Amino acid sequence: MRGARRSTAAAGPVVLRSAALGVLGGVGLWRLLAARGAVLEARRAARERLLTLRQGSEEWAAAEREAGRLEERERIGREVHDGLAQNLAAAAMLLRAAGRAEDAGPRQAERLEVAYDTLLLGLDQAHDLTRGVAFAQLSNGGLVAAAGRYVTLANRALACLAEFGAACEADGRPPQVRLRTSGAHRALPLPTESAVLRVIGEAVSNAVRHARAGSVTVDLDYRADHLAAAVRDDGTGLAAGAETWPAARPADPGGLGLAGAARLIRQAGGSLRVESVPGRGVAVLAEVPYPAGSGPGREPVAY
After folding, report:
1. Which of 142, 205, 211, 241 has a 20 to 30 Å separation from 121 between CA atoms?
2. Residue 91, domain member (yes or no)
3. CA atoms within 13 A on the CB side of 166
4. Residue 99 pLDDT > 80, yes or no?
Protein backbone atom coordinates (compact mmCIF):
# COMPACT_ATOMS: atom_id res chain seq x y z
CA MET A 1 0.00 0.00 0.00
CA ARG A 2 2.84 2.33 0.88
CA GLY A 3 4.37 1.62 -2.53
CA ALA A 4 1.10 2.31 -4.21
CA ARG A 5 0.83 5.64 -2.45
CA ARG A 6 4.35 6.53 -3.53
CA SER A 7 3.50 5.57 -7.11
CA THR A 8 0.36 7.65 -7.02
CA ALA A 9 2.18 10.58 -5.52
CA ALA A 10 4.88 10.30 -8.15
CA ALA A 11 2.34 10.15 -10.92
CA GLY A 12 0.61 13.29 -9.71
CA PRO A 13 3.05 15.80 -11.17
CA VAL A 14 3.08 13.92 -14.47
CA VAL A 15 -0.67 14.11 -14.69
CA LEU A 16 -0.61 17.77 -13.80
CA ARG A 17 2.03 18.46 -16.43
CA SER A 18 0.05 16.54 -19.00
CA ALA A 19 -3.08 18.41 -18.09
CA ALA A 20 -1.24 21.71 -18.25
CA LEU A 21 0.26 20.83 -21.59
CA GLY A 22 -3.19 19.79 -22.77
CA VAL A 23 -4.64 23.08 -21.67
CA LEU A 24 -1.81 25.00 -23.31
CA GLY A 25 -2.15 22.89 -26.44
CA GLY A 26 -5.85 23.56 -26.50
CA VAL A 27 -5.23 27.27 -26.18
CA GLY A 28 -2.70 27.13 -29.02
CA LEU A 29 -5.07 25.10 -31.14
CA TRP A 30 -7.87 27.51 -30.40
CA ARG A 31 -5.64 30.41 -31.40
CA LEU A 32 -4.64 28.58 -34.57
CA LEU A 33 -8.25 27.83 -35.41
CA ALA A 34 -9.25 31.40 -34.63
CA ALA A 35 -6.47 32.73 -36.88
CA ARG A 36 -7.47 30.33 -39.65
CA GLY A 37 -11.08 31.41 -39.22
CA ALA A 38 -10.04 35.04 -39.54
CA VAL A 39 -8.10 34.25 -42.71
CA LEU A 40 -11.07 32.39 -44.15
CA GLU A 41 -13.37 35.27 -43.24
CA ALA A 42 -10.99 37.74 -44.88
CA ARG A 43 -10.90 35.58 -48.01
CA ARG A 44 -14.69 35.37 -48.05
CA ALA A 45 -14.97 39.14 -47.67
CA ALA A 46 -12.40 39.64 -50.41
CA ARG A 47 -14.32 37.31 -52.73
CA GLU A 48 -17.52 39.21 -51.99
CA ARG A 49 -15.79 42.49 -52.74
CA LEU A 50 -14.43 41.07 -56.00
CA LEU A 51 -17.88 39.81 -56.96
CA THR A 52 -19.36 43.21 -56.14
CA LEU A 53 -16.70 44.99 -58.14
CA ARG A 54 -17.16 42.59 -61.04
CA GLN A 55 -20.90 43.04 -60.94
CA GLY A 56 -20.44 46.79 -60.76
CA SER A 57 -18.00 46.77 -63.66
CA GLU A 58 -20.37 44.65 -65.72
CA GLU A 59 -23.22 47.04 -64.96
CA TRP A 60 -20.94 49.96 -65.84
CA ALA A 61 -19.94 48.31 -69.09
CA ALA A 62 -23.60 47.63 -69.91
CA ALA A 63 -24.46 51.26 -69.17
CA GLU A 64 -21.58 52.40 -71.38
CA ARG A 65 -22.77 50.18 -74.21
CA GLU A 66 -26.31 51.50 -73.87
CA ALA A 67 -25.10 55.10 -73.83
CA GLY A 68 -23.02 54.43 -76.94
CA ARG A 69 -25.99 52.85 -78.67
CA LEU A 70 -28.23 55.80 -77.85
CA GLU A 71 -25.56 58.27 -78.96
CA GLU A 72 -25.13 56.45 -82.26
CA ARG A 73 -28.89 56.37 -82.80
CA GLU A 74 -29.04 60.10 -82.12
CA ARG A 75 -26.19 60.71 -84.57
CA ILE A 76 -27.89 58.72 -87.30
CA GLY A 77 -31.14 60.56 -86.61
CA ARG A 78 -29.38 63.90 -87.05
CA GLU A 79 -27.67 62.73 -90.24
CA VAL A 80 -30.93 61.51 -91.76
CA HIS A 81 -32.89 64.61 -90.75
CA ASP A 82 -30.29 67.16 -91.77
CA GLY A 83 -29.26 65.70 -95.10
CA LEU A 84 -30.63 62.47 -96.47
CA ALA A 85 -34.32 63.05 -95.69
CA GLN A 86 -34.27 66.59 -97.06
CA ASN A 87 -32.62 65.57 -100.31
CA LEU A 88 -34.98 62.64 -100.79
CA ALA A 89 -37.92 64.99 -100.24
CA ALA A 90 -36.47 67.44 -102.75
CA ALA A 91 -35.97 64.67 -105.32
CA ALA A 92 -39.56 63.54 -104.79
CA MET A 93 -40.83 67.09 -105.38
CA LEU A 94 -38.73 67.38 -108.53
CA LEU A 95 -39.98 64.08 -109.92
CA ARG A 96 -43.56 65.00 -109.12
CA ALA A 97 -43.14 68.34 -110.86
CA ALA A 98 -41.57 66.64 -113.86
CA GLY A 99 -44.47 64.22 -114.04
CA ARG A 100 -46.95 67.08 -114.16
CA ALA A 101 -45.08 68.93 -116.91
CA GLU A 102 -46.67 68.89 -120.33
CA ASP A 103 -43.53 69.61 -122.32
CA ALA A 104 -41.00 66.89 -123.09
CA GLY A 105 -38.22 69.13 -124.31
CA PRO A 106 -34.93 70.25 -122.78
CA ARG A 107 -36.58 71.59 -119.61
CA GLN A 108 -38.08 68.22 -118.86
CA ALA A 109 -34.69 66.59 -119.32
CA GLU A 110 -33.18 69.17 -116.94
CA ARG A 111 -35.81 68.44 -114.30
CA LEU A 112 -35.09 64.74 -114.44
CA GLU A 113 -31.35 65.38 -114.42
CA VAL A 114 -31.64 67.55 -111.31
CA ALA A 115 -33.75 64.92 -109.58
CA TYR A 116 -31.14 62.31 -110.49
CA ASP A 117 -28.28 64.45 -109.14
CA THR A 118 -30.25 65.10 -105.94
CA LEU A 119 -30.73 61.37 -105.47
CA LEU A 120 -27.00 60.82 -106.02
CA LEU A 121 -26.29 63.34 -103.28
CA GLY A 122 -28.68 61.47 -101.02
CA LEU A 123 -26.88 58.22 -101.85
CA ASP A 124 -23.55 59.79 -100.86
CA GLN A 125 -25.10 60.92 -97.59
CA ALA A 126 -26.44 57.42 -96.96
CA HIS A 127 -22.94 55.99 -97.45
CA ASP A 128 -21.53 58.60 -95.08
CA LEU A 129 -23.92 57.53 -92.32
CA THR A 130 -21.60 54.65 -91.44
CA ARG A 131 -18.54 56.92 -91.36
CA GLY A 132 -19.95 59.75 -89.29
CA VAL A 133 -18.39 62.32 -91.65
CA ALA A 134 -19.20 63.58 -95.16
CA PHE A 135 -16.43 61.53 -96.76
CA ALA A 136 -18.21 60.92 -100.07
CA GLN A 137 -19.08 64.59 -100.50
CA LEU A 138 -15.66 65.93 -99.47
CA SER A 139 -13.42 63.34 -101.14
CA ASN A 140 -13.43 65.23 -104.45
CA GLY A 141 -11.82 68.62 -103.84
CA GLY A 142 -12.60 69.23 -100.18
CA LEU A 143 -14.93 71.77 -98.60
CA VAL A 144 -14.91 74.52 -101.22
CA ALA A 145 -15.59 72.12 -104.08
CA ALA A 146 -18.34 70.33 -102.11
CA ALA A 147 -19.97 73.64 -101.17
CA GLY A 148 -19.78 74.74 -104.81
CA ARG A 149 -21.50 71.57 -106.01
CA TYR A 150 -24.18 71.97 -103.36
CA VAL A 151 -24.88 75.60 -104.32
CA THR A 152 -25.02 74.75 -108.03
CA LEU A 153 -27.43 71.87 -107.44
CA ALA A 154 -29.57 74.01 -105.13
CA ASN A 155 -29.94 76.71 -107.78
CA ARG A 156 -30.86 74.16 -110.45
CA ALA A 157 -33.45 72.55 -108.19
CA LEU A 158 -34.97 75.89 -107.19
CA ALA A 159 -35.22 76.94 -110.82
CA CYS A 160 -37.06 73.72 -111.69
CA LEU A 161 -39.46 74.02 -108.77
CA ALA A 162 -40.14 77.69 -109.53
CA GLU A 163 -41.60 76.67 -112.89
CA PHE A 164 -44.45 75.11 -110.96
CA GLY A 165 -44.86 77.84 -108.39
CA ALA A 166 -42.90 76.08 -105.66
CA ALA A 167 -39.97 77.54 -103.69
CA CYS A 168 -40.18 80.92 -105.40
CA GLU A 169 -40.78 84.56 -104.52
CA ALA A 170 -44.04 86.40 -105.03
CA ASP A 171 -42.95 87.53 -108.51
CA GLY A 172 -42.24 83.93 -109.52
CA ARG A 173 -38.47 84.19 -109.43
CA PRO A 174 -36.57 81.41 -107.64
CA PRO A 175 -34.24 82.27 -104.76
CA GLN A 176 -30.62 82.70 -105.76
CA VAL A 177 -27.85 81.01 -103.80
CA ARG A 178 -24.24 82.04 -104.33
CA LEU A 179 -20.90 81.04 -102.87
CA ARG A 180 -18.01 83.40 -102.20
CA THR A 181 -14.58 82.45 -100.93
CA SER A 182 -11.67 84.55 -99.76
CA GLY A 183 -8.19 83.86 -98.47
CA ALA A 184 -5.90 80.98 -99.31
CA HIS A 185 -7.76 77.70 -98.92
CA ARG A 186 -6.47 75.25 -96.34
CA ALA A 187 -7.21 71.57 -95.98
CA LEU A 188 -9.01 71.04 -92.67
CA PRO A 189 -9.64 67.77 -90.84
CA LEU A 190 -12.50 65.79 -92.32
CA PRO A 191 -14.76 66.15 -89.25
CA THR A 192 -14.25 69.93 -89.34
CA GLU A 193 -15.11 70.26 -93.02
CA SER A 194 -18.08 67.95 -92.48
CA ALA A 195 -19.35 70.22 -89.71
CA VAL A 196 -19.01 73.36 -91.86
CA LEU A 197 -20.72 71.66 -94.80
CA ARG A 198 -23.57 70.67 -92.49
CA VAL A 199 -23.98 74.28 -91.36
CA ILE A 200 -24.12 75.44 -94.98
CA GLY A 201 -26.71 72.87 -95.99
CA GLU A 202 -28.95 73.45 -93.00
CA ALA A 203 -28.79 77.25 -93.14
CA VAL A 204 -29.48 77.39 -96.89
CA SER A 205 -32.37 74.94 -96.50
CA ASN A 206 -33.90 76.98 -93.67
CA ALA A 207 -33.57 80.22 -95.65
CA VAL A 208 -35.26 78.78 -98.72
CA ARG A 209 -37.98 76.76 -97.02
CA HIS A 210 -38.95 78.92 -94.06
CA ALA A 211 -37.66 82.49 -94.49
CA ARG A 212 -38.96 83.18 -98.02
CA ALA A 213 -35.52 84.50 -98.91
CA GLY A 214 -34.84 85.84 -102.38
CA SER A 215 -31.07 85.75 -101.99
CA VAL A 216 -28.79 83.51 -99.93
CA THR A 217 -25.04 84.09 -99.75
CA VAL A 218 -22.53 81.52 -98.49
CA ASP A 219 -19.13 82.93 -97.49
CA LEU A 220 -16.03 80.88 -96.76
CA ASP A 221 -13.35 83.23 -95.45
CA TYR A 222 -9.97 81.57 -94.81
CA ARG A 223 -8.39 83.90 -92.28
CA ALA A 224 -4.99 83.86 -90.62
CA ASP A 225 -5.77 81.29 -87.91
CA HIS A 226 -9.31 80.06 -88.56
CA LEU A 227 -12.04 79.56 -91.13
CA ALA A 228 -15.07 81.84 -90.86
CA ALA A 229 -18.14 80.45 -92.60
CA ALA A 230 -21.31 82.49 -92.93
CA VAL A 231 -24.71 81.98 -94.52
CA ARG A 232 -26.78 85.16 -94.86
CA ASP A 233 -30.25 85.58 -96.32
CA ASP A 234 -32.61 88.47 -96.96
CA GLY A 235 -35.70 86.67 -95.75
CA THR A 236 -38.23 87.44 -93.05
CA GLY A 237 -35.76 86.86 -90.21
CA LEU A 238 -36.57 85.40 -86.85
CA ALA A 239 -39.51 86.68 -84.88
CA ALA A 240 -38.75 89.08 -82.06
CA GLY A 241 -37.70 87.09 -79.00
CA ALA A 242 -36.93 83.95 -81.00
CA GLU A 243 -34.08 81.83 -79.72
CA THR A 244 -30.63 82.30 -81.20
CA TRP A 245 -27.27 80.81 -80.28
CA PRO A 246 -25.33 81.12 -78.11
CA ALA A 247 -27.34 83.60 -76.04
CA ALA A 248 -30.50 81.55 -75.55
CA ARG A 249 -29.01 78.10 -75.14
CA PRO A 250 -25.29 78.44 -74.40
CA ALA A 251 -24.62 74.91 -73.16
CA ASP A 252 -25.87 72.41 -75.70
CA PRO A 253 -28.77 73.06 -78.05
CA GLY A 254 -28.90 69.33 -78.88
CA GLY A 255 -31.63 68.06 -81.16
CA LEU A 256 -31.63 68.16 -84.92
CA GLY A 257 -31.29 70.71 -87.69
CA LEU A 258 -29.14 73.75 -87.04
CA ALA A 259 -28.79 72.73 -83.40
CA GLY A 260 -27.13 69.50 -84.48
CA ALA A 261 -24.81 71.47 -86.77
CA ALA A 262 -23.86 73.69 -83.83
CA ARG A 263 -22.92 70.63 -81.84
CA LEU A 264 -20.63 69.38 -84.62
CA ILE A 265 -18.96 72.79 -84.84
CA ARG A 266 -18.24 72.74 -81.11
CA GLN A 267 -16.83 69.22 -81.36
CA ALA A 268 -14.42 70.61 -83.99
CA GLY A 269 -13.27 73.23 -81.48
CA GLY A 270 -15.25 76.06 -83.06
CA SER A 271 -18.29 78.17 -82.33
CA LEU A 272 -21.59 78.95 -84.02
CA ARG A 273 -23.96 81.83 -83.53
CA VAL A 274 -27.17 83.00 -85.18
CA GLU A 275 -27.95 86.68 -85.63
CA SER A 276 -31.26 88.05 -86.87
CA VAL A 277 -33.40 91.15 -86.99
CA PRO A 278 -37.11 90.66 -87.78
CA GLY A 279 -37.73 91.44 -91.43
CA ARG A 280 -34.02 91.73 -92.23
CA GLY A 281 -32.91 88.15 -92.66
CA VAL A 282 -30.75 85.74 -90.70
CA ALA A 283 -26.99 85.30 -90.49
CA VAL A 284 -25.57 81.94 -89.42
CA LEU A 285 -21.92 82.40 -88.47
CA ALA A 286 -19.47 79.58 -87.74
CA GLU A 287 -15.77 79.75 -86.92
CA VAL A 288 -13.40 76.79 -86.69
CA PRO A 289 -9.65 76.86 -85.95
CA TYR A 290 -6.97 75.52 -88.23
CA PRO A 291 -5.07 72.45 -87.05
CA ALA A 292 -1.51 72.98 -85.88
CA GLY A 293 0.97 72.95 -88.75
CA SER A 294 -1.56 73.52 -91.54
CA GLY A 295 -0.60 75.89 -94.32
CA PRO A 296 -2.31 77.76 -97.15
CA GLY A 297 -3.30 75.84 -100.25
CA ARG A 298 -5.39 76.68 -103.28
CA GLU A 299 -6.31 80.17 -104.41
CA PRO A 300 -9.85 81.50 -103.95
CA VAL A 301 -12.46 80.50 -106.49
CA ALA A 302 -15.91 81.89 -107.26
CA TYR A 303 -19.19 80.12 -108.04
Report:
1. 211
2. yes
3. 11
4. no
Would 185 be classed as within a structural domain?
Answer: yes
123 CB contacts (<8 Å, ≥6 apart)?
none
Q: What residues contact residue 243 under an 8 Å CB cut-off, 6+ apart?
A: 249
Q: What is the CATH number of the domain that holds 258?
A: 3.30.565.10
> Rounded to whole angstroms, how far apart are CA atoms 274 and 245?
5
Instruction: Please report, to the nearest 10 degrees, the dihedral formed by the alpha carbons of residues 151, 191, 126, 119 taken in order.
Output: 10
Amino acid, single-letter form, for residue 253? P
Task: Specify the pLDDT at position 264.
Answer: 87
- Domains identified in the chain, total number: 1
Q: How far apart are CA 223 and CA 181, in angstroms?
A: 11
- Determine contact, residues 70/62, Cβ cutoff 8 Å: no
Q: Tell whether 39 is covered by a domain.
A: no
Residue 250 has pLDDT above 70, yes or no: no
Residue 149 lies in a domain: yes
Residue 98, pLDDT > 80, answer no
